[in-house]
Amino acid sequence: MSSVRVLVGTRKGAFVLTSDGKRDKWDVSGPHFAGWELYHLKGSPADPNRIYASQSSGWFGQQIQRSNDGGKTWEPVGNKFVYDGVPGTHQWYDGTPHPWEFKRVWHLEPSLKDPDTVYAGVEDAALFRSTDGGQTWQELSGLRGHGTGPHWQPGAGGLCLHTIILDPSESQRIFIAISAAGAFRTDDGGKTWKPINRGLRSVYIPDPTAEVGHCVHHIAMNPSRPKVLFMQKHWEVMRSDDAGNSWRDVSGNLPGDQVVHPDKDGSTRKFDLKGFGFVIDVHAHEPETIYVVPIKSDSHHFPPEGKLRVYRSRTGGNEWEPLSKGLPQSNCYVNVLRDAMAVDSLDKCGVYFGTTGGQVYASADAGDSWSPIVRDLPAVLSVEAQTLP
Amino acid sequence: MIRIVLPAHLRTLARVDGEVTIEVEGPVTQRSVLDALEASYPMLQGTLRDHVTLKRRPFVRFFACEEDLSHDSPDAPLPDAVASGKEPFLVVGAIAGG
Fold first, then answer.
1. What CATH number should be reported for the domain holding residue A284?
2. SS3 A212
3. Which CATH number belongs to the domain containing residue B21 in this structure?
4. Is residue A303 part of a domain?
5. Binary contact (A63, B43; C-beta < 8 A)
6. Is B98 within a domain?
7. What domain range is A203 assigned to?
8. What ipTM was estimated for this complex?
């Protein structure tokens, strides 16, 4: 019988949650690396027992941990992330040049085919790759060096490369996203890159349709349709049907808020914006079914009306239904961070997400109903699900 | 023999209990002690000093013989009591964060 392993990164360690295919009883293992921040853990699609974990600390820096037995035991591997050549500068919050400085690894993306190859998205934004199981890391510097890098500016959480998507149909194609630079794509394995932000409109930046500068929070893809991408932007949920060449707003009937922004002439303008949030994911078997967790606004960062609701669209966007069965519907003021939602590939599709309040919720029926696996973990930073044979 | 006391998180990372002991060839300085420590425990590379610049990480401090040596030159001799093993070289995670 199939089983599921859910990898949870938190502010104070990692947890491994396991269940059989019914997904109604869970074993909880952890905390692993107690006291450290675990920004992300992810297993290799080619060898599910090979798991990589990003362990970091404001005191002692970055570690990469590797497990070869599904998270039972771990060993530290390479933690030397050095930018290629002279790092140069990006823009600081005030627009002044600021030197590129490595801070931490936000996201680890193992190769689809080789357990020893893994990509790391880091802050300050860059993409690294290891081909020896995490022992050594080399920057794919064509990303920072393609031309717009000096104009990138950090979002509130830092200048982080947080999303890495490997295209299963074109082995040389990789999508990445950076807050607050936008989305980028390579078609040659990481040598050259181009921004893919056409169609994004961000009214809160000087040029709302700029080539770069958009606060992309997360991107998701169903592997069966790799040209179709769904994006949770700062505000708005976006969709691309052409591998990111163009995007359109599919926020539809998602909750929104009225936002006041200063204009260039000193006056203010009001905008009715929809769909602020961080996470987005796609159903494992229904590529038009997507999930988001709307958050009230960029100045609140908690669910509207204190009600935790996942919104599901079965139409690839625009038409959304709130899913609340089993989720707290009063006095709930948690957030769900960008890497903290995942799906399994069982039938029915399981959906999982973690909150800054330390709950990890699971749905074994594609979102129709939810129950907590655990309630009182440290703030959850990331959730990944592995479907095991 | 040089005795080194690591903070709890780094003892866990290095998989050691209590003090670490190392041998240092030549002058006993912060640099030679940390070089020898990292050679024996490679997983500590980058946790105390930047990989490239070898500068002390901002929230890491070095103490010995009731003195804060954090701002001393990395090539300054450590106290004789550290060099002789009478006193340990203390690596401390700075109290910060409230």
1. 2.130.10.10
2. coil
3. 3.10.20.30
4. yes
5. yes
6. no
7. 77-354
8. 0.93
The answer to whether position B74 is within a domain reads: yes
**Total tally of structural domains belonging to chain B:** 1
**Which DSSP symbol is given to A199?**
T
Chain B residue nearest residue A102, CA to CA: B50
Residue to test with chain B: of A60, A65, A74, A138, most B Cβ within 10 A: A60
Do A141 and A193 meet the contact criterion of CB atoms below 8 Å apart? no
- Asked whether A380 and A30 are in contact (CB, 8 A), the reply is no
Which tokens go with A249? 């707003």
Q: Tens of pLDDT along A32-57?
A: 999 999 999 999 999 999 999 999 99
Q: Which residue has the tokens 């050691």?
A: B16
Contact A308, A295 (CB under 8 A): no
Domain-located, residue A360: no
Tens-place pLDDT, residues B52-82: 999 999 999 999 999 999 999 999 999 999 9
Q: Which residues of B touch A76 (CB under 8 A)?
A: 13, 43
Threshold 0.90, pTM exceeds: yes
Nearest to B59 among A34, A35, A58 (CB): A58
Chain A residue closest to B47 (CA)? A60
**The domain containing residue B12 runs over which residues?**
2-93
Contact between chains at A62 and B46 (C-beta distance less than 8 A):
yes
